[in-house]
Amino acid sequence: MLGVAMQENVQMPEEAKAIGKAIPLVLRRMVRLIIGTIPFPAIAEILKSIYVEEAQKKLIRDGTNPTKSALALLTGLDTRVVSTIQDAEFNIHIDPQKICPEAALLETWAKDSFFQDEITKKPAILPLEGRGRSFHSLVLKSVGRNITVKTVLNKLVESGNVRSVSGNIDRVELLSVFYSPISSDRAIHTDIAFLEASRVLNAVIHNMNSVPGERVPQQGRWTYRLNPENYKKFRIRARKLMEKQIKEGEVLLEEFEEPKKHPGQITVGFGWYQWSDHEPEEEGE
Description:
The chain is mainly alpha-helical and 285 residues long. Helix content is 51%, strand content 4%. It has 3 domains: 82 residues; 78 residues; 95 residues, no CATH class.
């Protein structure tokens, strides 16, 4: 299991060590949600931009001039990277190939006249291999050389976007240009997961920056000593408990909710969830 190792001769504050141990726990859950949908290079580009933007906000809040040098020190990024991100005004532009190489390939196939049938002007049925107009050439142009043609083909066949046509010359036919790496149901649950996670983190950040009297409820309860045979029974009891509390919470929200939407109103809420960890080595005892 991944851990963050520190050299023994490096003196690190206990708080920093604790964060170093906790970060992989959070990131691992995030990766499980997005892996197979957005590749790492796209995430890295998004993260760099957010890092610089949040660092700039922090320096301004602290009354410090957010110079490129100060931002580079705070983020660990090169000043040239900081400049590029600031010049773009934190508007993230990512090459479609980095976001989803499969979708980039399908778009090239559909729009590039080189890969279209000369008569119908529609995406041609391409020979699998060979120079010139072939599926191999399409992969090289839209995806690159780092991923094999077979890997790309298998993925697109599995998703239903293409089909293999056997014969004297093996060919590939385009069936649909709309590529979806995950089902709509999973996409909805992924959105909900990140939204709920952001709300929990928002409560934590608020409490860290607030005096005790202004902090919001943000707590959890758990046990490390549950017999797996009793998990289903516990889950049923927990669901009943939360269903009762959810109804009470809805009544409270309705009591405070204004009849109509007006400027200046804010969004408030609370959440319920029951979790379990079948990988206790990640959490520690």
